[in-house]
Amino acid sequence: MEIALVHSRAVAGIESPPVTIEVHLSGGLPKITVVGLAETTVKESRDRVRSAVLSNGFVFPWGHVTINLAPADLPKEGGRYDLAIATGVLAASGQLPATALPGVELVGELGLTGELRPVRGILPSAHAARRSGRALILPRGNAAEAALIRDLELLPADHLADVCAHLSDTGRLAPYRGTPAAPAAAPGPDLADIRGQHHARRALEVAAAGGHNLLLSGPPGTGKTMLAERLPGILPPLGDPQALETAAVWSISRHGFRSADWGKRPFRSPHHSASAVALVGGGNHPQPGEISLAHHGVLFLDEFPEFDRRALEMLREPMESGRILIARAAHHAEFPAAFQLVAAMNPCPCGFLGEASGRCRCTEDAVARYRSRLSGPLLDRIDLHVDVPNVPAGLLLAQGGNSGEDSATVRDRVARAQFRQMERAGRLNTRLDNRGIERHCPITASQRELLRRAVDRLGLSARAVHRVLKVALTIADLAGADAPRDEHLFEALSYRRSGPARA
C-alpha cells in the first residue's frame, strides 16, 4: 500500500479539531516532505519518526515520502503528531495493517528510540475523541488526565513498539481503568480566621452568592488579601461541565493540569508587574492568560492601581462577556474567562489616608493621580466597593473564639442563593442582561424613585444602576425573598461608594 490515512487531533484554544494525516510513498530520491501549515516543531518530526522507526526494527521507506496534515489551513505545532505520522509511514509501506487505523486516534510525541512522551492539551483531544466515537491511543503519562473524560476507550502505551503490536493484533494494549483523582480533602483558608471586618465579610458573601466583582480598599495590613483568599472556600464546588472547562484551559497552558485539582475553584494572584499578555493571554502561539486560568474561579489583583493601565483596560470586555478572543496575523484562539475579580488597593500612595494618627502626608493631587490610574469604565464594572478599615487592637488581640461564621456555614447559604438564581434564570445574577433584570428583578414605584435620587446624588451610570439592581437581587436571594425589598436596595447602594474622605 502506498498511501495511508491516520486520525489525530490539533489544539486550537480549548478546542481540538481533527487532523487527518495522509502519508504517500512514491519513487525518486530519498526525501521526506511535510505539508499542511506545519510549524518548525512539526517538521522536525521527520528525524524523530525516522529514528524511532529504525530503532524498532522496521524499515523506513526508500524514496519520496509525502506527509500531508489536513486541513491545510489549520496551524499545527508541537510533537503531538509524531506517533500518528510514524504509524502512517509504517501502514503506507505495508509494515502495519491499515484496517485498524479508521477506529482509533493517535496523539503522542516520540523519542529517538520510540518511547512515547506526554503532550499538552490532551484533555480537549480526549473530549473530541469521545464525540467522534473512536478509541484514543496516547502516552501513558497523559492517561490519568484523559480519564477525566468518561465513556472513552483509552489505550495508553509506553513505546511505539507497543502501538505497532496493538495495530497488528500481536499484542493488544490494555484499556486504562484508572479513576479520576478526587480533590484533596484538606480545607482551604477559613473565613473564621478573620477578626472583625463584618462589613467586608458580608460583601464577600454577597459577591460569592451572585458572582459579583469586588473592590477592597483600605490601609496596609487590614486583611484585604486574607478576605480574597477565602472567597473560593465559600463558593459551591464546581459541577462536572464547569470542572471540565476549567481543566481544559489548564491542560493547554504551559502549567498543565493535575488530576488532583479536578473540581477545585482556581485562585490566581498575579503580581502587579504582570503584562497585558500575561493577564489576558496571547503570544505568537496564543496561550491562555491569568483571566482564563481563573475561569470559574477567582482572579485576585492586589495593589490594583499599580498594574499597567493598558493591561487593566483589557479586562473590561472579558468581565462582561466571560470570554477573550486572541487574534494574530496567522493565529487566533478563543479562551473562556468567566472569572470573578477581587481587587485590593490602598486609599492613597502611602496607604494611610484617613487614619487618626496623621501618618499620611499625601497631597490631594497625589491622591487624585493615584486614583486616576483606575478608569471610570473599569470601576463601573465592579459591583461592590468596600472599605476595609483597621481592626481595633482589643478585638485583634482577644483570646479564644472568632469573630464570625466559618466558611462551611457561609458556603451553604451561598449555595442556596445560587440554586435560586439557576432555577429562576439559568445563570447567576451577575450574568443577567437588561431584559433579564426587568423580568427577574421587579421593583416598586417608591424603589424607582429611590434609585432616581441615588443616580442624581452618586452620579451613577446606566451600567452602575443595573449592577445595583443585580446586587439587590442577590441580597434578596440570600434572604430567601422573591424580590428585593427596600433594605436590600439600600444595602446594594451602600456598596457604590466614592472612596474615603481625607482626614
Description:
The protein is α/β, with parallel strands linked by helices and 503 residues long. It has 2 domains: 3-167, Ribosomal Protein S5, domain 2; 191-392 and 402-494, P-loop containing nucleotide triphosphate hydrolases (Rossmann fold, 3-Layer(aba) Sandwich), CATH 3.40.50. Helix content is 37%, strand content 16%. It is built from 21 helices and 18 strands. The protein has helices at residues 40-43, 45-55, 82-92, 122-132, 143-146, 160-167, 198-210, 224-229, 240-252, 276-280, 290-293, 309-313, 316-321, 364-371, 376-380, 393-396, 407-425, 434-440, 445-458, 462-479, 486-494, and strands at 3-9, 18-26, 31-35, 64-70, 104-106, 109-110, 116-117, 135-139, 154-157, 214-217, 267-268, 281-282, 287-288, 298-301, 323-327, 332-336, 340-345, 384-387. The protein has a 5-stranded parallel sheet with strand order 11-14-17-10-18. It has a 4-stranded mixed sheet with strand order 1-2-4-3. Strand 6 and strand 7 form a beta hairpin. Helix 2 crosses helix 3 and helix 20 packs across helix 21. The model is unreliable at 498-503 (pLDDT under 50).
